[in-house]
Amino acid sequence: MGNHSKSRALLASALILGLTACSSSRHDPLEKYYLVSVNIKNAYWQAAGAGFIGAARGLGVAAEVVGPDTYDPPGEAQAFRDAVAKKPSGILVSVADPNLMKDPIDSAIALGIPVITIDSDAPASKRLTFIGTNNYQAGMMGGRVLAVQLHGKGNVVVYTMPGQPNLEERLQGYKTILADHPQIKIAQVVDVKGDPRIAFDTTTELLKGKAAPEAFVCLVSFACPEVADVLDRSKVTGKVVVAMDTDANTLDWIQKGLIAATIAQKPFTMSHYGVVMLDSLQHFKLPSLDVKWAEDTRSPVPIFVDTGATLIDKSKVADFLKAQTAANGS
Q1: pTM score, two decimals?
Q2: Which CATH superfamily is domain 3-133+266-308 in?
C-alpha cells in the first residue's frame, strides 16, 4: 500500500474512531482550532460554539470562536485571515459571502491549513468538505407546510439575505414546491441584512397596506420571532408564518399559535463533527490538501455531510424541548 493510500485509510479510520473515543495523549499543547462566522452572539451560533468547544475539550485541544457580532461579511473575511495568520491546526467557517471568502480559504489550503465549511458553503473554494443542512430539502419541507396552511392560495413575503448560498438553496426549495401551487405567489423578497429590526419594521409596514400578505416565510432564524411579535401587537390573526431554527422565542411563538412551524437544524452537530474531522486531518496528514476531492473516487473526505433537519410544529414542541433537556443532562 502506497503512502497516499495509507493516509487515506488512516484518516477514514480516525474519523470513525474520533466520534467514539477522545484522548488528549496524541495532541500537542499548541494545537488549536478556530470556528469563524458572523453574528456569533446569536442563539444559533452559541449552540454551534458549544458543540465546537465541547468537542475540542474532549479531544484535549484548544479552540476559539471568532468573527463579528453582527452580519458583517468583510469582518468575517478579516477574522478568517487573522486566524490563518496564527497558523492553526484547522478552521471551520460558515460562509456569509462566498465571493469574499474564496481567496482566503484557498490561501489557507495553500499553507497546509485544513478548512471545512459548516452551515453555509463556499463550493467554488478549495475547502475540503461541507458539513450542514441539505438546505434545498429544508426549503421543500417548509414549502409543503406553507402550501397546506394556505390551502393552495395566497401571497407570501420571504425574509432572507440574498447571495448567501444556504439561504438561496432554501428559497429554491420553496419555489420548487410552490411551482405546483400557482395560486401561491412570492410577492416580495426582503433583504434583512442580518438585522432583526428590518424584519420588524417591514412587517409593520406591510400590515398597514391594503393588500397585506397571507403568509410570511423566514429563511433566517431571527426574522420570524419579529414577524410574530408584530402580528401579536397588531392583534392580527389568520396569517401563516413558517420559521427557521429553534431559538427560544421561535418555539414560544409556535406554542402561542403565531408561528405555524419551524425547521430545526443542528449547529451543535455541525461544529462538533467538524472538529473531529479537522483533528483527524491534523494527525493523519494527507500528502496535499489541494486536491479535487470531489473527483476522487477514493477521497478520504466526503463532499457533503448532511446533519439533518426536523420540522417542528405546535404538536412537536414539547417533545423537542424534552429531547433537548435530556441531551443536556438536565
Answers
A1: 0.86
A2: Response regulator (3.40.50.2300)
